[in-house]
Design brief:
Structural class of chain A: mainly alpha
CATH topology of chain A: MetI-like fold
Oligomer: heterodimer
CATH class of chain A: Mainly Alpha
CATH superfamily of chain B: P-loop containing nucleotide triphosphate hydrolases
Shape of chain A: flat
CATH topology of chain B: Rossmann fold
Number of domains of chain A: 1
CATH superfamily of chain A: MetI-like
Radius of gyration of chain B: 18 Å
Strand content of chain B: 15-25%
Shape of chain B: globular
Number of helices of chain B: 9
Number of helices of chain A: 11
Distance between the termini of chain A: 36 Å
Order of helices and strands of chain B: EEEHEEHEHHHEHEHEEHH
Number of strands of chain A: 0
Radius of gyration of chain A: 26 Å
Distance between the termini of chain B: 39 Å
Strand content of chain A: under 5%
CATH class of chain B: Alpha Beta
CATH architecture of chain A: Orthogonal Bundle
Largest sheet of chain B: 6 strands, mixed
Largest sheet of chain A: none
Strand order of the largest sheet of chain B: 6-7-8-3-9-10
Chain lengths: ~290, ~240
């Protein structure tokens, strides 16, 4: 006697159809308006910039098409280095960040030193500028002379992992704490140990809650991989620097910058989409 | 006389400066269904939670099949694995399917092979009319279905004792029936049950013994007929007058 989920016979009434047509017209009008205002803003910007006294010089030194074309090859080679560092660092950050978050959530006196260490680590490395971590790791650790010679890329990756793990650990910890305590109670009531409860119940739910924040950290790391150039690794930024030194023209920096934007853009869009989807699922907000 | 499945002896619990349990003595025998009644805050839930070691007692003892589980040296995880609990708000794991929810303890705590646990889970779901929900996620189910799944999760590993903590209080009236049907079914199978409830007519029907708690004290207990039809203590009479108008 249960009714079918959808009525096969229902057709929208003329009233509903007229409402839909009205909404469609309104949508078309707002798209046109958005287009027009964007064009107007762009025109004003171009006019203002082009009418500045130094524009001709800036155009030659920052936007030289010939220099740009010549620098694309080497910069792209460098970008591959950035990509490799990014991928390796992201995996390591995920592992170390999770470990730190779990350490901070451990209970019991035995784990006090671990808890304290993890807390000190995250406090410290969230406070230190990445650039300083890069210098300390990239020049300080090799100077100890206990490790074999490693490329600058290697130390750059380590520094990124060290710094970003601290942020990611805090994001993950926030997610784990946002899981309702009744979930832990239910898990422990089944006889699961503290560790099993974290692994099977708390972490999977906690991570879901902070996916947008984690993706945002990833986007942030995508551009910060460019900082490894300060250690001498020939990445996109360093490659651009070399081109600049050769041509006395800043255009390669613009090219490198554009490369980084293109690199991060898909992830930025994906973050927005995922965030919107999560919001939609969790809060049925109606039309407001 | 056999050992009770669970026995509380002088159990006390204090939260801050509030004594929630003031020396409770209560024993539940095998295959017995004992129902706790009493106003909100009378200590029903807290008593159940001490029996599963979710709360630590501040004094007294709790014996599970004769073993003192309030001894600090006892393995709390092993104790909890022997006791099934169902909560007011179901507390299903939202990121796991129904089947994964109900077989979690069998797989991870009792180390049963995955296929065996899954088969047992599907059989149990099917026998309770939830067969086609096995691969759904909990948020696709109605409240009554979720609570029945939570009960299945608690009984799949055949615990010695089943604790039911106001399992119908969060449900719409028309969903209460299906959950209570399942409890009747469990009673028929001989499950040992200690439950807290506000459903007086159900308590009268299903209980072997009804226990009335007030302000952390066990005031009166007896068969449903004794307690509901001929209560002796004034507090019991007053409470019943309020809830069974």
């Amino acid at each position: 006697m249960t009714a079918p989920l959808a009525d096969a016979a229902w057709q929208p009434s003329p009233l509903e159809l007229s409402r839909r047509a009205l909404r469609r017209r309104a949508t078309t009008r707002s798209i046109l308006l958005a287009l027009l205002s964007s064009l107007a803003v762009a025109a004003v910007l171009i006019l203002v910039i082009a009418s500045t006294p130094g524009w001709t010089v800036v155009r030659e030194t920052f936007f030289d098409p010939k220099v740009a074309l010549a620098s694309i090859g080497p910069i792209f080679q460098g970008l591959l280095v950035n990509l490799l560092v990014l991928l390796i660092a992201a995996v390591c950050v995920a592992l170390l960040g999770t470990l730190l978050a779990v350490l901070r959530s451990l209970r019991g006196p035995v784990f006090f030193p671990l808890r304290l260490l993890a807390a000190a680590y995250t406090d410290f490395f969230r406070g230190v500028p990445l650039l300083i971590v890069l210098y300390l790791v990239g020049f300080g650790i090799p100077a100890l002379m206990i490790f074999p010679r490693m490329p600058a890329m290697f130390w750059g990756t380590i520094a990124l992992v060290v710094s970003y793990s601290a942020y990611v650990a805090e994001v993950l910890r926030a997610g784990m704490e946002a899981v309702h305590p009744s979930q832990r109670v239910a898990a422990r009531s089944l006889g699961l140990t503290h560790g099993q409860t974290l692994r099977i119940v708390v972490i999977p739910q906690g991570v879901r809650k902070v996916v947008p924040a984690l993706m945002n950290d990833f986007v942030s790391m995508q551009k910060d991989v460019g900082l490894i150039s300060v250690l001498g690794a020939v990445d996109a930024v360093r490659a651009a620097q070399l081109q600049v030194a050769e041509t006395f023209n800043f255009t390669p920096y613009i090219v490198a910058g554009l490369f980084f934007v293109i690199l991060s853009w898909p992830m930025i869009r994906l973050t927005d989409i995922v965030t919107a989807r999560l919001n939609k699922r969790e809060q049925a907000g109606g039309i407001v | 006389m056999s050992t009770p499945v669970i026995e509380a002896i002088g159990v006390r619990k204090r939260f801050g400066d509030h004594d929630v349990l003031r020396g409770i003595d209560l024993a539940v025998d095998a295959h017995e269904v004992v129902v706790l009644i009493g106003a909100s805050g009378s200590g029903k839930s807290t008593l159940l939670r001490t029996m599963n070691l979710i709360e630590r007692v501040d004094d007294g003892q709790i014996l599970l099949s004769g073993t003192d589980i309030t001894d600090p040296r006892v393995d709390a995880d092993a104790v909890r694995a022997r006791v099934g609990v169902v909560f007011q708000h179901f507390n299903l794991f939202p990121h796991l399917t129904v089947l994964d929810n109900i077989t979690l303890a069998a797989r991870r705590v009792h180390r049963r092979p995955k296929a065996e646990a899954a088969q047992r889970g599907r059989e149990l779901l099917t026998s309770l009319g939830l067969g086609e929900k096995a691969d759904e996620y909990p948020d696709r189910l109605s409240g009554g279905q979720q609570q029945r799944v939570a009960i299945v999760r608690a009984i799949l590993t055949e615990p010695e004792l089943l604790l039911l903590d106001e399992i119908t209080s969060a449900l719409d009236p028309q969903l209460v029936g299906e959950v209570l049907d399942l409890v009747r079914e469990l009673k028929g199978r001989g499950t040992t049950i200690l439950m807290a409830t506000h459903e007086m007519s159900f308590a009268r029907e299903v209980a072997d013994r009804v226990v009335f708690l007030k302000d952390g004290v066990l005031v009166e207990q007896g068969t449903p007929e004794q307690l509901f039809d001929a209560p002796r203590h004034p507090a019991t009479i007053e409470f019943l007058a309020r809830v069974t108008r």
